[in-house]
């Protein structure tokens, strides 16, 4: 590396200083050698995997610290809330756990983290809120590294450098990968398994150790990913069927690898769920029956069949979309492009659609974008090495023609480099503002109010909390970390045709709903009420009548999130003598 720097310094010293009136070709002739040195320096760094790990880990840890917004309830309610209940003995289990359609495999990872925090006495509000995302940042960094390795194997290290660049600044990756969603870990496992999976000329089995081949290791990782999210089997159905047609050892592949690894994974998952549920249940089967066979997910809304192609995935890829399409076209790697299309197509069959469902194939789109960037970067014009005009230095006219040829090449290089940097500036300036806005600002009120309540509860200034918001709009006990009474508006699905859940009943008639709750149901007043400012005016008479005052206002969003603008989250506190008479809800 020092030798590269010395060569770069000698090259600079040997070049004349730029003069007033220098043409683009003169500048281009000076720029290109430095560019070669710079690329060689970067390639030398990228050849050391430890440097890649350090860069990715540092970037994702910073990413995790910047994420302060609320995205999807599953980030808290299907992982951290369950893990908190497992370790500390209190926490809310949603209706999915009553029906056995969620596995405890994913929450166990964060339960182990919480156990360490409890043993070391670090289970403070700050660590409880930040440490899960910091742990997820390690998994996200692993995804980045394996994407780099996968792209290196397919396209080479320079394309891998640009694929890593695209992965790092893509707005949705930045926004989602450090969140404690099972989809985020599923993405890491998918990319790692694809790296170890034999493909093309690499069908001959490679061995990662004395006993385990790369294909077996890929199957183990894929099995773990399917245990986290059974729908990950959609990816491995495509990969497995294609490989079955290509591999000469079909029976060995099916009977000696897929079948035993699948059975072991299924058995371990069933044992874990038997231990946690207290009874035997096959979660993958329950999950697939609810989401695929009964359309249970439609309860949370539906989208048109083309949504992933026309809106969902293009929004995730964002300004990298032209580069991704161009990379697919010039690379002709239809296997990985087909995998993206297969996943989007299969998920399009479902009525309920979400961005995060197709997150595992987003890094593949960034891989193609990286290849496109490399191809654009490499478009430099060079004089013919064996051009007799360029080599003949005895004839003055020939020498003049050679100089013109070099000037034309240098000018073309300068223009190509300029265009390339404009492309980089475009994708950077479109993705990073979106990434920071959605991660730091947009929908931050739900997490901010829980962070405040956690601090207040640690000083015994919170007795009970009522959330008059759409269900699961905020984190819960996993963030508060205090065993006090808390209640939210229930929105569990029902088999009754005309059933209206609590959240909808409150939205339709908020005042009447509260009167029924505290008069007919005879519930005691909570010490704190959390509500969006879009409805607080409707319940203001109730709040004034029962001596509630506005304690804090937390910014939430600049524009409507669902059907109406929820600009702020408001925290009301029961004051005066009424506070002393409150009991648990």
TrEMBL record:
Keyword Transit peptide in record: no
Example of a GO cellular component annotation carried by this entry: pollen tube
BP-aspect Gene Ontology terms: attachment of GPI anchor to protein; GPI anchor biosynthetic process; pollen tube guidance
Topology in the lipid bilayer: Multi-pass membrane protein
Compositionally biased tracts (Basic residues): 1-13
Transmembrane segments: 104-122, 171-197, 217-239, 251-272, 307-328, 334-350, 357-374, 420-440
Region (Disordered): 1-27, 380-401
Keywords: Endoplasmic reticulum, Glycosyltransferase, Membrane, Transferase, Transmembrane, Transmembrane helix
GO molecular function, one term: alpha-1,2-mannosyltransferase activity
Enzyme Commission number(s) of this protein: 2.4.1.-
Enzyme class, first EC level, given as a word: transferase
Subcellular location: Endoplasmic reticulum membrane
Family membership: Belongs to the glycosyltransferase 22 family.
Name this polypeptide is given: Mannosyltransferase
